[in-house]
Amino acid sequence: MVKMEVARTISAVRNLVKAARSEGKKIGFVPTMGALHIGHISLIEAAVQQTDFVVVSIFVNPTQFEPGGDFKKYPRPFGKDLEICRKKGVDVVFAPTPQEMYPMENLAWVNVEKLTEPLCGQFRPRHFLGVTTVCAKLFNIVLPDIAFFGRKDAQQAIVIKRMVADLNMPLEIAVCPTIREQDGLAVSSRNQYLTCKQRKDATLIYKSLQKCQTMIESGVTETQEIMAQMRKILNQIPSGKIEYVSIVDAETLENIDQVEDKVLPAVSVRIGSARLIDNILVDAST
Ligand code: AMP
User: Fold this and answer.
1) CB burial string 209-241: b at 16+ within 10 A, e below
2) Which run of H or E residues covers position 19?
3) Do residues 166 and 155 lie in contact, with contact meaning Cβ atoms separated by under 8 Å?
4) End-to-end C-alpha distance for the chain, whole angstroms
Protein backbone atom coordinates (compact mmCIF):
# COMPACT_ATOMS: atom_id res chain seq x y z
CA MET A 1 0.00 0.00 0.00
CA VAL A 2 1.22 3.52 -0.84
CA LYS A 3 2.12 5.65 2.18
CA MET A 4 -0.51 8.22 3.19
CA GLU A 5 0.74 11.80 3.29
CA VAL A 6 -0.40 14.41 5.79
CA ALA A 7 -0.29 17.89 4.26
CA ARG A 8 -0.46 20.83 6.64
CA THR A 9 -0.02 23.54 4.05
CA ILE A 10 -1.78 24.57 0.86
CA SER A 11 1.41 24.31 -1.17
CA ALA A 12 2.11 20.78 0.13
CA VAL A 13 -1.31 19.43 -0.85
CA ARG A 14 -1.15 21.24 -4.22
CA ASN A 15 2.21 19.61 -5.01
CA LEU A 16 0.94 16.14 -4.09
CA VAL A 17 -2.19 16.51 -6.23
CA LYS A 18 -0.17 17.95 -9.12
CA ALA A 19 2.13 14.92 -9.09
CA ALA A 20 -0.84 12.53 -9.04
CA ARG A 21 -2.56 14.37 -11.88
CA SER A 22 0.61 14.29 -13.97
CA GLU A 23 0.40 10.49 -13.73
CA GLY A 24 -3.09 10.72 -15.24
CA LYS A 25 -4.89 10.02 -11.97
CA LYS A 26 -8.47 11.10 -11.31
CA ILE A 27 -8.66 13.10 -8.08
CA GLY A 28 -11.37 12.43 -5.47
CA PHE A 29 -11.98 14.78 -2.55
CA VAL A 30 -13.88 14.34 0.72
CA PRO A 31 -14.15 17.55 2.78
CA THR A 32 -14.77 16.91 6.50
CA MET A 33 -14.43 18.54 9.89
CA GLY A 34 -12.90 15.34 11.31
CA ALA A 35 -14.19 13.22 14.21
CA LEU A 36 -14.62 10.67 11.46
CA HIS A 37 -17.37 8.07 11.72
CA ILE A 38 -19.06 5.54 9.42
CA GLY A 39 -20.87 8.34 7.58
CA HIS A 40 -17.56 9.94 6.57
CA ILE A 41 -16.10 6.49 5.88
CA SER A 42 -18.87 5.77 3.37
CA LEU A 43 -17.83 8.91 1.46
CA ILE A 44 -14.17 7.89 1.58
CA GLU A 45 -15.07 4.42 0.28
CA ALA A 46 -17.04 5.93 -2.60
CA ALA A 47 -14.07 8.19 -3.41
CA VAL A 48 -11.62 5.28 -3.30
CA GLN A 49 -13.90 3.31 -5.60
CA GLN A 50 -14.60 6.04 -8.13
CA THR A 51 -11.27 7.87 -8.32
CA ASP A 52 -7.54 7.07 -8.33
CA PHE A 53 -6.15 9.52 -5.78
CA VAL A 54 -8.16 10.47 -2.69
CA VAL A 55 -7.70 13.63 -0.63
CA VAL A 56 -9.60 14.00 2.66
CA SER A 57 -9.58 17.39 4.33
CA ILE A 58 -9.92 17.65 8.08
CA PHE A 59 -10.65 21.25 8.96
CA VAL A 60 -13.00 22.58 11.62
CA ASN A 61 -13.96 25.67 9.69
CA PRO A 62 -14.45 28.63 12.04
CA THR A 63 -16.45 30.70 9.54
CA GLN A 64 -19.38 28.28 9.45
CA PHE A 65 -20.03 28.31 13.20
CA GLU A 66 -22.41 30.79 14.78
CA PRO A 67 -21.03 33.05 17.52
CA GLY A 68 -21.48 31.04 20.72
CA GLY A 69 -21.72 27.80 18.70
CA ASP A 70 -19.73 24.63 19.37
CA PHE A 71 -16.58 25.59 17.41
CA LYS A 72 -14.31 25.38 20.47
CA LYS A 73 -15.74 22.15 21.83
CA TYR A 74 -16.12 20.43 18.46
CA PRO A 75 -14.35 17.02 18.81
CA ARG A 76 -10.86 16.85 17.27
CA PRO A 77 -9.56 13.24 17.62
CA PHE A 78 -6.87 13.84 15.00
CA GLY A 79 -4.72 10.71 15.62
CA LYS A 80 -7.75 8.43 15.38
CA ASP A 81 -8.92 10.19 12.20
CA LEU A 82 -5.52 9.66 10.55
CA GLU A 83 -5.65 5.98 11.44
CA ILE A 84 -9.08 5.62 9.81
CA CYS A 85 -7.90 7.40 6.66
CA ARG A 86 -4.78 5.25 6.48
CA LYS A 87 -6.81 2.03 6.79
CA LYS A 88 -9.28 3.15 4.16
CA GLY A 89 -6.62 3.84 1.53
CA VAL A 90 -6.68 7.66 1.54
CA ASP A 91 -3.68 9.14 -0.30
CA VAL A 92 -3.50 12.57 1.35
CA VAL A 93 -5.04 14.07 4.47
CA PHE A 94 -5.10 17.84 4.17
CA ALA A 95 -5.26 19.29 7.69
CA PRO A 96 -4.56 23.02 7.60
CA THR A 97 -4.67 25.39 10.56
CA PRO A 98 -7.24 28.23 10.54
CA GLN A 99 -4.26 30.57 10.00
CA GLU A 100 -3.26 28.65 6.85
CA MET A 101 -6.80 28.87 5.45
CA TYR A 102 -7.54 32.42 6.61
CA PRO A 103 -4.18 34.26 6.83
CA MET A 104 -5.93 37.64 6.53
CA GLU A 105 -9.38 38.92 7.37
CA ASN A 106 -11.56 37.14 4.79
CA LEU A 107 -13.17 39.66 2.48
CA ALA A 108 -14.30 37.44 -0.40
CA TRP A 109 -17.38 35.36 0.33
CA VAL A 110 -19.38 33.05 -1.92
CA ASN A 111 -23.11 33.45 -1.39
CA VAL A 112 -25.72 31.12 -2.84
CA GLU A 113 -29.04 32.95 -2.65
CA LYS A 114 -32.51 31.51 -1.99
CA LEU A 115 -31.43 27.91 -1.32
CA THR A 116 -29.62 29.01 1.86
CA GLU A 117 -32.63 30.82 3.32
CA PRO A 118 -35.04 28.07 4.47
CA LEU A 119 -34.42 25.14 6.85
CA CYS A 120 -31.08 25.53 8.65
CA GLY A 121 -30.56 28.97 7.10
CA GLN A 122 -33.32 30.42 9.31
CA PHE A 123 -31.46 29.46 12.46
CA ARG A 124 -27.83 29.78 11.38
CA PRO A 125 -27.80 32.96 9.27
CA ARG A 126 -24.10 32.95 8.26
CA HIS A 127 -23.57 29.20 8.32
CA PHE A 128 -23.91 28.49 4.59
CA LEU A 129 -21.81 31.53 3.70
CA GLY A 130 -19.01 29.90 5.69
CA VAL A 131 -19.64 26.49 4.12
CA THR A 132 -19.75 27.67 0.51
CA THR A 133 -16.73 29.92 0.99
CA VAL A 134 -14.58 27.23 2.58
CA CYS A 135 -15.68 24.67 -0.03
CA ALA A 136 -14.82 27.11 -2.84
CA LYS A 137 -11.39 27.63 -1.24
CA LEU A 138 -10.87 23.89 -0.78
CA PHE A 139 -11.94 23.15 -4.36
CA ASN A 140 -9.48 25.78 -5.61
CA ILE A 141 -6.71 24.28 -3.49
CA VAL A 142 -7.30 20.58 -4.22
CA LEU A 143 -8.73 20.90 -7.77
CA PRO A 144 -10.60 17.59 -7.54
CA ASP A 145 -12.45 15.85 -10.35
CA ILE A 146 -15.17 14.66 -7.96
CA ALA A 147 -16.02 15.91 -4.45
CA PHE A 148 -18.14 13.66 -2.23
CA PHE A 149 -20.86 14.94 0.12
CA GLY A 150 -23.45 13.23 2.35
CA ARG A 151 -27.20 13.48 1.90
CA LYS A 152 -27.41 13.70 5.69
CA ASP A 153 -26.75 17.42 5.14
CA ALA A 154 -29.15 17.62 2.20
CA GLN A 155 -29.42 21.40 2.09
CA GLN A 156 -25.64 21.72 2.14
CA ALA A 157 -25.28 19.29 -0.78
CA ILE A 158 -27.91 21.17 -2.81
CA VAL A 159 -26.28 24.54 -2.06
CA ILE A 160 -22.80 23.27 -3.03
CA LYS A 161 -24.12 21.73 -6.25
CA ARG A 162 -25.69 25.05 -7.17
CA MET A 163 -22.50 26.99 -6.36
CA VAL A 164 -20.51 24.66 -8.62
CA ALA A 165 -23.08 24.97 -11.43
CA ASP A 166 -23.51 28.75 -11.22
CA LEU A 167 -19.77 29.48 -10.96
CA ASN A 168 -18.75 26.87 -13.59
CA MET A 169 -16.39 25.18 -11.18
CA PRO A 170 -14.73 22.30 -13.06
CA LEU A 171 -15.70 19.41 -10.80
CA GLU A 172 -18.52 16.97 -10.20
CA ILE A 173 -20.40 16.75 -6.91
CA ALA A 174 -21.36 13.24 -5.81
CA VAL A 175 -24.03 12.94 -3.10
CA CYS A 176 -23.95 9.72 -1.06
CA PRO A 177 -26.72 8.18 1.12
CA THR A 178 -27.17 8.92 4.82
CA ILE A 179 -25.59 6.31 7.06
CA ARG A 180 -27.64 5.47 10.15
CA GLU A 181 -27.14 3.65 13.44
CA GLN A 182 -29.09 0.39 13.79
CA ASP A 183 -31.94 2.21 15.52
CA GLY A 184 -32.20 4.72 12.67
CA LEU A 185 -30.40 7.74 14.19
CA ALA A 186 -28.31 9.44 11.51
CA VAL A 187 -24.65 9.10 12.45
CA SER A 188 -23.14 12.47 13.39
CA SER A 189 -20.03 13.74 15.16
CA ARG A 190 -22.42 15.72 17.37
CA ASN A 191 -24.19 12.56 18.68
CA GLN A 192 -21.39 12.27 21.21
CA TYR A 193 -22.71 15.38 23.00
CA LEU A 194 -25.81 13.33 24.00
CA THR A 195 -26.32 11.63 27.35
CA CYS A 196 -27.52 7.99 27.32
CA LYS A 197 -31.14 9.06 27.81
CA GLN A 198 -30.91 11.79 25.17
CA ARG A 199 -29.33 9.32 22.75
CA LYS A 200 -32.36 7.02 23.17
CA ASP A 201 -34.81 9.90 22.74
CA ALA A 202 -32.95 11.00 19.59
CA THR A 203 -34.29 7.94 17.74
CA LEU A 204 -37.62 9.81 17.58
CA ILE A 205 -36.08 12.10 14.95
CA TYR A 206 -35.90 9.34 12.34
CA LYS A 207 -39.23 7.96 13.58
CA SER A 208 -40.86 11.30 12.75
CA LEU A 209 -39.44 11.11 9.21
CA GLN A 210 -40.61 7.52 8.82
CA LYS A 211 -44.08 8.60 9.93
CA CYS A 212 -44.01 11.22 7.20
CA GLN A 213 -43.03 8.62 4.64
CA THR A 214 -45.82 6.20 5.64
CA MET A 215 -48.40 8.98 5.59
CA ILE A 216 -47.34 10.02 2.08
CA GLU A 217 -47.31 6.39 0.95
CA SER A 218 -50.82 5.93 2.29
CA GLY A 219 -52.00 8.86 0.20
CA VAL A 220 -51.96 11.85 2.59
CA THR A 221 -50.94 14.95 0.66
CA GLU A 222 -51.59 17.89 3.06
CA THR A 223 -48.18 18.83 4.42
CA GLN A 224 -49.74 20.62 7.44
CA GLU A 225 -51.43 17.40 8.48
CA ILE A 226 -48.22 15.39 8.09
CA MET A 227 -46.06 17.95 9.90
CA ALA A 228 -48.51 18.01 12.84
CA GLN A 229 -48.01 14.25 13.26
CA MET A 230 -44.25 14.62 12.99
CA ARG A 231 -44.28 17.33 15.67
CA LYS A 232 -46.34 15.06 17.93
CA ILE A 233 -43.58 12.46 17.78
CA LEU A 234 -40.77 14.99 18.29
CA ASN A 235 -42.57 16.58 21.23
CA GLN A 236 -42.07 13.30 23.09
CA ILE A 237 -38.38 14.20 23.50
CA PRO A 238 -38.35 15.71 27.01
CA SER A 239 -35.17 17.77 26.60
CA GLY A 240 -35.86 18.43 22.91
CA LYS A 241 -36.50 21.79 21.34
CA ILE A 242 -37.76 21.65 17.76
CA GLU A 243 -36.05 24.17 15.47
CA TYR A 244 -38.00 23.23 12.39
CA VAL A 245 -40.17 20.52 10.89
CA SER A 246 -40.51 21.14 7.16
CA ILE A 247 -41.60 19.43 4.01
CA VAL A 248 -40.04 21.20 1.06
CA ASP A 249 -39.57 20.67 -2.66
CA ALA A 250 -36.49 18.44 -3.00
CA GLU A 251 -34.91 20.73 -5.62
CA THR A 252 -35.94 24.29 -4.80
CA LEU A 253 -36.29 23.77 -1.02
CA GLU A 254 -39.46 25.87 -1.16
CA ASN A 255 -42.30 25.10 1.25
CA ILE A 256 -45.13 23.13 -0.25
CA ASP A 257 -48.76 22.69 0.80
CA GLN A 258 -49.48 19.52 -1.14
CA VAL A 259 -47.13 16.62 -1.64
CA GLU A 260 -46.41 15.86 -5.28
CA ASP A 261 -43.32 14.34 -6.88
CA LYS A 262 -40.04 14.56 -4.95
CA VAL A 263 -40.20 16.11 -1.50
CA LEU A 264 -37.66 16.54 1.26
CA PRO A 265 -39.08 16.20 4.75
CA ALA A 266 -36.42 17.67 7.06
CA VAL A 267 -36.17 18.31 10.79
CA SER A 268 -33.81 20.03 13.19
CA VAL A 269 -34.04 19.44 16.93
CA ARG A 270 -31.88 20.65 19.77
CA ILE A 271 -31.41 17.95 22.38
CA GLY A 272 -29.36 19.17 25.32
CA SER A 273 -26.35 20.88 23.79
CA ALA A 274 -26.58 19.00 20.48
CA ARG A 275 -28.29 20.34 17.40
CA LEU A 276 -29.35 17.34 15.32
CA ILE A 277 -30.63 17.47 11.75
CA ASP A 278 -32.02 14.74 9.56
CA ASN A 279 -34.01 14.34 6.36
CA ILE A 280 -35.25 11.76 3.88
CA LEU A 281 -36.18 11.93 0.22
CA VAL A 282 -39.70 10.83 -0.65
CA ASP A 283 -40.88 10.44 -4.20
CA ALA A 284 -44.67 10.62 -4.09
CA SER A 285 -44.97 10.00 -7.82
CA THR A 286 -43.83 6.37 -7.59
P1 AMP B 1 -18.84 17.09 8.59
O2 AMP B 1 -17.55 16.52 9.06
O3 AMP B 1 -19.95 16.97 9.58
O4 AMP B 1 -18.70 18.45 7.98
O5 AMP B 1 -19.32 16.15 7.38
C6 AMP B 1 -18.48 15.92 6.27
C7 AMP B 1 -19.26 15.19 5.23
O8 AMP B 1 -19.76 13.96 5.74
C9 AMP B 1 -20.51 15.98 4.76
O10 AMP B 1 -20.62 15.87 3.35
C11 AMP B 1 -21.63 15.29 5.46
O12 AMP B 1 -22.86 15.38 4.79
C13 AMP B 1 -21.13 13.85 5.48
N14 AMP B 1 -21.82 13.07 6.52
C15 AMP B 1 -21.90 13.37 7.84
N16 AMP B 1 -22.67 12.47 8.48
C17 AMP B 1 -23.07 11.57 7.53
C18 AMP B 1 -23.89 10.40 7.55
N19 AMP B 1 -24.45 9.96 8.68
N20 AMP B 1 -24.10 9.75 6.39
C21 AMP B 1 -23.54 10.19 5.23
N22 AMP B 1 -22.75 11.29 5.14
C23 AMP B 1 -22.53 11.97 6.28
Assistant:
1) bebbeebbeeeeeebeebbebbeebbeebeebe
2) helix 10-22
3) no
4) 45
> 185 phi and psi, to 5 degrees?
-60, 130
Residues 6+ apart with CB under 8 A from 165: none
- CA 167 to ligand 1 centroid distance, Å: 24
Residue whose C-alpha is closest to residue 191's, from 66, 30, 88, 39? 39
Strands 53-58 and 92-94: parallel
Q: Give the tens place of pLDDT for each residue, 168-187.
A: 999 999 999 999 999 999 99
Specify the pTM.
0.98
79 alpha carbon – ligand 1 mean position (Å): 19
From 4, 36, 40, 147, active-site residue: 40
What count of other Cβ atoms lies within 10 Å of the Cβ of residue 177? 12
